[in-house]
């Protein structure tokens, strides 16, 4: 399995594009076919949300998708089992987005072992501060599953320095001061912030939260290594607007971005 940072840097063209999907939104039977479809469209990696009853970092679209998945009875175990069943059907890296509670309930060591066996390349845990993750996972064999750190616009320079010093997989640069969702206006300081992070980071920097238009993909993607798009993808797939998803992913290939 290629390391997550290497997979992002070795994309063939343009800027990286990572779509977010909620595992089990329309039932788990659609999970592997959806991953295959997104890979065929040109996704660099896929962020795969695990449904959780208290999704503090999620906006209304993703929260609703999580509730639909929970109504289908989807669990972390189910998702990992289904990924194992899909082995060999796709090669795009998978990054799990989950909360700390499901990881604890699963068992931390067992979680990383099972995630690696399922072909997972990275994990994002938004309610676990990066500094605490260093202590929590110290001494645990994570089987090369990267713990992806988040950096916000309000992070201090000292904290950013600590994160960049230890970063793996990629740095998730949060573009908004709030939860996920779509926006038409980003903070004025965002582009300079992204360029600074990208110049200093040993791993790729991807911008996420709020992105839903091709011009945003091109603007943000030119200032860092790529974008993560969640609410737009979840909403469009649920509504059957597959061509809208394909068009947004295709816009990333036109960006003259760093690799």
Compact overview of the structure:
This protein is α/β, with parallel strands linked by helices. It contains twelve helices and nine strands.
Descriptive terms for the model:
single chain, 259 residues, alpha/beta, nine-stranded parallel β-sheet, 14% strand, globular
Describe it.
The longest helix has 12 residues, at 60-71. Strands 5-4-3-2-1-9-8-7-6 form a 9-stranded parallel sheet. β6 (150-151), α8 (157-166) and β7 form a beta-alpha-beta unit. It is an alpha/beta fold. It is built from 12 helices and 9 strands.
Secondary-structure blueprint of this entry?
Blueprint: H1 4-9, E1 16-22, H2 31-41, E2 46-49, H3 60-71, H4 76-85, E3 94-97, H5 100-106, H6 108-117, E4 120-124, H7 130-136, E5 146-147, E6 150-151, H8 157-166, E7 171-174, H9 190-200, E8 205-208, H10 214-223, E9 226-229, H11 231-238, H12 242-252
Parallel strand pairs: 1-2, 1-9, 2-3, 3-4, 4-5, 6-7, 7-8, 8-9
Helix pairs in contact: 10-12
Summarize the main sheet. Answer: 9 strands, parallel
The arrangement of helices and strands along the chain is: HEHEHHEHHEHEEHEHEHEHH
Rg from C-alpha positions?
17 Å
Uncertain segments? none
Structural class: alpha/beta
Number of helices: 12
Strand order of the largest sheet: 5-4-3-2-1-9-8-7-6
Helix content: 40-55%
Average pLDDT reading: 92
Q: How many strand elements?
A: 9
How much of the sequence is in beta strands?
A: 5-15%
Tell me, what's the shape?
globular
Distance between the termini: 20 Å
